[in-house]
Write a structure and sequence with these properties.
It holds the Pfam family CHAD. The protein has helices at residues 5-28, 34-51, 58-93, 100-125, 128-140, 148-151, 155-176, 182-205, 207-210, 212-245, 251-270, 272-276. It is an all-alpha fold. It has two domains: 1-153, CHAD domain (Alpha solenoid), CATH 1.40.20; 154-273.
């Protein structure tokens, strides 16, 4: 018997909603990696709602996507600071002893930014806006506002069309990259990364329905996302190091750190062509 698209997408939504809600107590307690886990769950849920939007009431889905974007951006400020602090700490460990002022400007500043951002998250979690979003998501676990015209269609067909659209969107971005100007290329690569992430999440949501075809495609999209994520992390780290240097008397050390991140960015982007090759195949 064919699986209907409505119940199938509800099952995929439920998993992501449960991940998001389960992460909240840990975020409140500032448990290790908790902000990251809640952010990923939020972005996954938003991505699924966007990719499978035609299965839902358009106004309700758009409103929830907007609220999830707000939450993801809030979590993202803290997570980005957390990543910078961890990256800087690891980078400095590789240089042996460095002046304490450099550690303060890099690791200390990132830790301070994380602490401030985490306080803002706690304020938001106690606010009316998050409470309203939480209530919506709790309802959507079992009874989201589906579009009846598509909910009864065959899940295999509907989910395959969604993956096809997301893959086509990503292919268009990848094909545009070789002709991009140097000024535009960095942001285009960022858009390709986001497109790969969206395809990955739509594939993961379709795994129970489409099986290996979806999971294999999702794994390749994840590989592309990871390669470009490593590249962007190194580029942004290099920029932050140079900005932190300011009028420091230890300019040479900052330059060495920046050069290390530039090399890391180069290694990451070298893996991009192979990671993106799958998008050109049928």
């Amino acid at each position: 018997m064919a699986i209907e698209a409505g119940p199938a997408v509800v099952a995929a939504l439920r998993e992501d909603i449960d991940r998001l809600l389960a992460a909240e107590p840990d975020v409140r307690a500032d448990a290790e990696d908790s902000v990251h886990q809640m952010r990923v769950a939020t972005r996954r849920l938003r991505s699924v709602l966007r990719s499978y939007r035609k299965l839902f009431d358009s106004d309700a889905a758009a409103e929830t996507v907007t609220e999830l974007k707000w939450l993801a951006e809030l979590l993202g400020v803290a997570r980005d600071a957390e990543v910078r602090g961890e990256r800087f700490a690891k980078l400095l460990d590789g240089f042996g002893e460095v002046p304490a002022e450099i550690t303060r400007r890099l690791v200390g500043a990132a830790d301070d930014a994380y602490a401030q951002a985490h306080e803002e998250i706690l304020t938001a979690l106690d606010g009316k806006r998050y409470a309203a979003l939480r209530e919506v998501l709790t309802t959507w676990r079992t009874d989201p506002p589906l579009d009846d015209s598509l909910a009864g269609d065959d899940a295999d067909d509907v989910f395959a069309r969604v993956l096809g659209r997301d893959r086509k969107r990503l292919r268009k971005l990848v094909f545009a990259e070789p002709t991009a100007t140097p000024a535009d290329r960095v942001e285009l690569l960022h858009d390709i990364r986001k497109g790969a992430k969206r395809l990955r999440y739509s594939c993961e949501a379709a795994g129970e329905v489409l099986g290996a075809d979806a999971t294999d495609l999702g794994a390749r999209a994840k590989r592309l996302q990871s390669a470009l994520g490593d590249h962007r992390d190194a580029v942004e780290s290099r920029e932050a190091i140079l900005a932190a240097a300011g009028d420091s008397t230890d300019a040479t050390v900052y330059e060495l750190l920046a050069d290390t991140e530039e090399a890391a960015a180069g290694r990451a982007i070298a893996g991009y062509p192979a990671a993106a090759a799958f998008i050109s195949t049928d």
